[in-house]
Write a structure and sequence with these properties.
The protein is α/β, with parallel strands linked by helices. Helices cover 42% and strands 14% of the residues. Strands 1, 4, 5, 6, 9, 10, 11, 12 and 13 form a 9-stranded mixed beta sheet that branches. Strands 14-15-16 form a 3-stranded antiparallel beta sheet, with no helix packed on it. It binds (2R)-2,3-dihydroxypropyl phosphate and manganese (II) ion.
Length: 457
Amino acid sequence: MLIGLLLTFYYPARMYSYNPEIIKPKYDASELIIHFGLLGHHILDSYSYLREKEKLVLTDEEKNKIHNWFGKKQSAIEITSQNSLNNNLEGFGRDKNLILIQVESLQNFVINQSINGQEITPNLNKLLDHAIYLPNIYPQTIDGNSSDAEFLTQTSLFPVSKGSVFFRYPHNTYNSLGKMMKNEGYNNIAFHADEGSFWNRAEMYPSIGFDEFKTISDFKLDEVIGMGLSDGSMFRQSIDMLKEVKNPFYAFYITLTNHIPFQLPEKYRILKLDKSLNESTMGGYIQSVSYTDKVIGEFINDLNKNGLLENSLIVIYGDHGGIRDREVVEQYFTKKPIGDEQWLRDYVPIPLIIYNPNLQSDFNDKIGGQIDLMPTIKYLMGVNGPKADYGFGRNLLYGDDGHAILPKGKYVKEPYFIDESNIEKNISEEKMEQLIYSDLIIRSDYMKVLLSQKTEK
Ligand code: GP9
Ligand code: MN
């Protein structure tokens, strides 16, 4: 046994002596398995787990800075709410069901776009007739891809600066949209047709207010595309599950089919594209976005048929970029060079679409980020009035100040700040503060303290 153990440790120890970076929290299991084998991965994983069990303890200075930041935020909100005319959408969704759809790799540039005379996303485009449409929302994910997007929109915190918050801090106390809706008497349910263990969702979801989580094992595997059950089948099968949930409900859907490498089988390709475009990554992307658009359209129809549309607020957004390569877009789509600024302004954003058949069409070009979804939705659902939460986002439907911070991560090499007139690459310390505080809050589980103080007051 001793020899066995020594042999088990030998390989990772040798790798560590070559490169101490390997033990930094990555939590990209497949990468670690490729480099260190199954056993090596488990050893590194156990090491990181034990190391991170010891929580960070904040200094008094750090605590004060965090409290001051939120204090300033609350005062700013109070001033804005006194100075603005009350937006008549406040509480529009009160008592309605809330349905959030996080669409894999959905970028904004395909919305309202046609190719060879065919609309790429005809169903989403049609929804815009009765939707608040924000085309300038920035993905702010770091290392955790889809799961970071979920974290941003559900908690209004930035994900941790290294690794995946879903893996590293799944059992922390969080202030989340799900928990708020629960307090309002909503019943929450999440749907994602992948393994529950992927991105550690099954562990994390209860901490953000989803006790019920339908994963691939809850669905009949009647149509598999790419990484798992097709979006079409997930949406179709979910209707019966949704009908079982008591109203009002908050349903959170995470789609999967429009995932890199976008190799959608021919029979699902709806658009007629030139052969070379169809065979390229860009063509694959357009086809698979179009597929997801189609099944979202069918889902909306199904909700309608089942009497669930009129009484639901539907929020659709992208999790992060799909086509990250500018050359691919230039070669197959724009057929001309895209400048740096144009790339950031027109191709990086994701759409945010807030739909209900009784909403009037409202195009809102304000710049924002995924971090702003929770306060915006909270406002529309009439939860908690204008009181600020311990989150770093703001209500996008109030005030004029549009901006977003893009943290450094898998999709962004250096962090930057963007507003209507500027794109700052070396962002000031003051603007970086919120990233630092968010990271400190998560690593020390400080939300638990913040929330308990709030209740005491
Ligand atoms: C799988 C899905 C994958 O469950 O989250 O998306 P990714 O994180 O690779 O973008
Ligand atoms: Mn994703």
